[in-house]
């Protein structure tokens, strides 16, 4: 066991050794696991996980990278064990695909990935040192595994309306909508002298009266406001000056406040839109909740399938 684990660590280290900034793939090989009489080699695992190695080398260094690569190998081994279990089960049950299904799959791949060029497809097979018969056998395994997985897992997923409703109630706080408003304001400075303050007060009162007489708030704000007359984004009143909060909460959408007076200025608040406190309706989050529940069911059904297959087949891990 210790020897096999040491081998795995050595393989992990060899994968991120750098030559011209590129990972070096070790040629070392050996047995990683066995399912019945089917041997899974470290080479097979290496072929599976190698495309992911560059992402790890960018994100991690040194011993941490070695540990991540080792974990990747272990995950890769478990994936191959699961695939082999399904293949073994399919073999025992005599599952097979008609030749015409494989022909159709090959035609679709040539059409979609090789632009209909069969010669290019054959060239790629040759570069992989794979015969057409070997490719068909590999593709048959993949299609049978897909069909088996669909039958044992995907077709058994069933998210009910009661489950959706129960999950919505359980996580309802995640969909809480705080009260928010969009607003404009008119700001008029009071001035410093008594005479200025009297003039400014009358200006503020006249402005309010014009609004009551039907003047457009945005246009009037542009004309008389000594502050920014632009429409605000959605704002929580808690993030606004305290003196303005009551008006923001109490003023109806499309309406405006009375004069708001501070020591230095007059405000008039015009509320354009209100979003009342509440929760996002279920219909607007149903799709996400359904997907989450389906994913959880899929994970559970997958585990149950693997547990069943594990109980019916012999598995040995060399670590």
Describe this structure in words.
This protein has 319 residues and is of the alpha+beta class. It has 12 helices and 11 strands. The protein has helices at residues 2-15, 42-49, 53-59, 62-93, 99-113, 118-127, 132-152, 161-170, 194-212, 217-224, 245-250, 282-312; strands spanning 18-19, 22-23, 31-35, 38-41, 176-177, 180-189, 255-256, 260-261, 265-275, 278-279, 315-317. Strands 6, 7, 8 and 9 form a 4-stranded antiparallel beta sheet that branches. A 3-stranded antiparallel beta sheet has the order 4-3-11. A hairpin with a 3-residue loop joins strand 8 (260-261) and strand 9 (265-275). The longest helix is centred in the N-terminal third of the chain and has 32 residues, at 62-93. The radius of gyration is 34 Å and the shape is elongated. It starts with a helix and ends with a strand. The model is unreliable at 1-27 (pLDDT under 50).
Largest beta sheet, briefly? 4 strands, antiparallel
What sort of overall outline do the alpha carbons produce when their principal axes are compared?
Answer: elongated
What percentage of the residues does DSSP assign to strands (E)? Answer: 5-15%
Please compute the radius of gyration using only Cα atoms: 34 Å
Give me the secondary-structure category: alpha+beta
Q: What is the overall pLDDT average?
A: 89
Number of strand segments: 11
Number of separate helices: 12
Unreliable residue runs: 1-27
Question: What distance separates the N and C termini?
Answer: 5 Å
What's the helix-strand series?
HEEEEHHHHHHHEEHHHEEEEHE
Approximately how much helix is present in the residues?
55-70%
């Amino acid at each position: 066991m210790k020897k096999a684990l040491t081998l795995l660590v050595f393989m992990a280290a060899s994968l991120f050794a750098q030559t011209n900034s590129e990972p070096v793939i070790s040629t070392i090989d050996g047995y990683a696991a066995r399912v019945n009489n089917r041997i899974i080699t470290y080479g097979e695992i290496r072929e599976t996980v190698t495309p992911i190695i560059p992402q790890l080398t960018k994100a991690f260094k040194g011993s941490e990278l070695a540990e991540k690569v080792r974990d990747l190998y272990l995950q890769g081994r478990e994936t191959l064990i699961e695939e082999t279990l399904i293949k073994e089960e399919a073999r025992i049950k005599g599952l097979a695909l008609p030749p015409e299904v494989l022909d159709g799959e090959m035609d679709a791949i040539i059409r979609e990935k090789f632009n209909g060029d069969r010669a290019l497809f054959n060239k790629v097979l040759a570069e992989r040192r794979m015969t057409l018969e070997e490719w068909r056998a590999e593709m048959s395994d993949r299609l049978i595994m897909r069909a088996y997985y669909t039958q044992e897992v995907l077709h058994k997923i069933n998210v009910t309306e009661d489950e959706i409703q129960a999950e919505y109630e359980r996580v309802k706080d995640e969909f809480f909508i705080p009260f928010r408003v969009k607003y404009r304001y008119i700001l008029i400075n009071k001035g410093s002298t008594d005479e200025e303050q009297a003039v400014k007060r009358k200006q503020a009162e006249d402005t309010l009266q014009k609004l009551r007489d039907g003047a457009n708030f945005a246009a009037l704000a542009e004309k008389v406001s000594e502050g920014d007359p632009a429409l605000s984004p959605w704002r929580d009143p808690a993030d606004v000056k305290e003196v303005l909060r009551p008006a923001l909460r109490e003023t109806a959408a499309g309406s405006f406040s009375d004069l708001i007076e501070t020591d230095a200025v007059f405000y008039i608040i015009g509320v354009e839109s209100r979003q009342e406190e509440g929760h996002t309706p279920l219909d607007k989050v149903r799709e996400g909740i359904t997907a989450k529940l389906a994913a959880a069911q899929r994970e559970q059904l997958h585990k149950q399938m693997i547990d069943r297959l594990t109980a019916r087949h012999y598995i040995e891990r060399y670590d």
